[in-house]
Specification:
Length: about 290
């Protein structure tokens, strides 16, 4: 979604804004006026109205599961971030003049990773947030990824859980949960591909202030997005990445114009946090290490 260490996603933000406008006036996202560009063989982008029940903190999965071999896990039980697994972002996010990544905004406490967004005097009183990448601990082609997390309410502070190319040559990009800071009532899954950043996106109504496990199963030619153990969307075809990628997690504050995001306003709390209970990742059973 969002140094996130890559180029800007301005086209994606504009496309999302158009999509939202279409929904307000009752237009179908898969009708005659599509707002998301997809390959000709792509299935329509749809909303999924099924009720998602609130969750709670739960133990981290340990060990292999059918079809998958666990290759990465972090339950954040220490006092500091494990730098053998994670690299921290710093500096200006690509395409977001209002954002700033500060390493000090990522902490570990009470068995959780906490990413805090707030106006930081050390960062010229701008809204600073945090982000991190598994580039030092996990790089692989194909895999299954699960993140159990929740967010504070906070207009103008969005989040992203995503896969990015290990060589930082963007696109492709696979966002398996992201929002634009306009609220916590839905999340997006977005596949970015092609030299002009074409998008294939789907929206899921869900309260992300409650604990949920969002994830993606990435296999040759297919992406299956999951929530709390069930698949809610599938994307497929030769636009699915087939290169080594890393897992990134971040929050980000947005400007008031020029991107898809909504900026903080008078209702935004002074501190907006993202809490990550645990992260696990798997390789396909039988795949080479």
């Amino acid at each position: 979604m969002f140094l996130r260490t890559r180029q800007p996603k301005l086209l994606g933000w504009l496309a999302y804004a158009l999509m939202m406008a279409g929904l307000v006036v009752g237009l179908s996202r898969c009708g005659a006026t599509p707002t998301v560009s997809k390959p000709e063989t792509a299935q329509p982008t749809v909303e999924h109205p099924e009720r998602i029940n609130p969750g709670k903190r739960m133990p981290m999965p340990v060990g292999d599961i059918p079809g998958w071999r666990q290759v990465f896990a972090d339950d954040f039980n220490g006092r500091t971030l494990d730098d053998s697994k994670w690299r921290l972002y710093s500096g200006q996010p690509g395409g977001d003049p209002a954002g700033w990544f500060d390493r000090g905004h990522i902490t570990v406490s009470n068995g959780m990773l906490v990413i805090s967004a707030y106006r930081d005097p050390h960062d010229y009183n701008r809204w600073a947030t945090g982000g991190l990448s598994s580039s030092v601990g996990l790089v692989q082609t194909y895999g299954k990824y699960l993140v159990r997390f929740r967010l504070d309410p906070g207009i103008g502070v969005g989040h992203a859980l995503l896969l990015m190319p290990a060589n930082n040559a963007w696109p492709p990009e696979v966002d398996f949960s992201e929002d634009n800071g306009s609220g916590r009532s839905r999340t997006l899954a977005t596949l970015h591909f092609g030299t002009h950043d074409t998008h294939w996106a789907a929206g899921l109504p869900v309260n992300t202030t409650q604990w949920h496990t969002l994830g993606v199963e990435w296999t040759p030619g297919k992406l299956q997005y999951t929530i709390d153990g069930r698949i809610w969307e599938t994307m497929w075809g030769n636009v699915v990445p087939s290169i080594p990628m890393v897992l990134d997690m971040q929050t980000e504050a947005w400007p008031c114009s020029g991107t898809w995001g909504q900026c903080p306003n008078s209702s935004t709390p002074s501190v907006v946090r993202m809490y990550v209970d645990w992260v696990v990742a798997y390789a396909r059973a039988g795949a080479a290490s």
